[in-house]
Amino acid sequence: MQEYSIDFVKELLIVGSGTMGWRIGLQGAISGFEVTLYDLNDTVLESAVGFQDKTLHRLVKAGIVPMEEVEAIKSRISLTTDIEVAASSADVVSESVTEDRDLKVKVWEQLGPLLPEHTVMTTNTSYMLASWFAEASGAPERFAAFHFHDVFKARVVDIMPHPGTAPWINGLLYDLGLRLNQIPVYLKREANGYVFNHMLASLINSAMTLKVKEVASIEDIDRSFMGNFSLKIGPFGMLDDIGLDTVWHVTKNTGNPALEPLLELLDTYISAGKLGIKTGEGFYSYPAPAYLQPDFLMGQRPDLTI
Length: 306
Known about the structure:
This protein has helices at about 20-30, 40-60, 70-75, 85, 100-110, 165-180, 195-210, 220-230, 235-240, 245-255, 260-270, and strands spanning about 10-15, 35-40, 75-80, 90-95, 120-125, 145-150, 155-160, 185. The protein is α/β, with parallel strands linked by helices.
């Protein structure tokens, strides 16, 4: 198997152009890579481009991206619903399909044989292990987890090989993380939830448990966390940012029956189409959620009866 360095990487393929996929793709184009966004239908791809345009506008306004580079960045992003076209010349693949183990296996079984022999394959799964579907790719030695967070605000990327990952892949992904303006975090062994998500899961499960048991309101749970840590967002705001459907899949895949009440809480919102920021409503309403209002922490006097 040929080893190569970051300078060999020219083309990135993003499989799944939802919440994380379009972000990774946009940062790839900003960083100078040719990027292909692949998804099953044009509607998803068109939505991804819309989000990318809005984010580019925000990055220009913040002075992060020069206005004169915008058109060049956009020109480096291509769209396709044809998986053979998508796979034809990829140097690195980043897969961000729904957190469903069977679906990811199916995707890699289809995609793996279509890729060039040199392609490094990565999954952006939030909670699963790369070893669960590395074999499905057909080249487990070139497969690893390469997990992004927000990309633009929380710029951490986790590098998590599985036992069969070729050692040189770790160095390549570390350098790619730096090239993508991320903070690389290397995991010495596979762990569900990586580092931050492992800690975050404990926090959001605790917050949802407090809500399920009606210990306090969503707003007061967030106020307690935000006030104590001087933060602008609490656990339920974080859930909206992640996406309630994503949290549902991650929670479901733990297989822990004790978390069933939390799944039921999420179900009440998901069934109503309230998935968080991406749909305009979750535990809060967007684009102006209550927790961002100047008087949120002091709040309004609630019903103080038990």
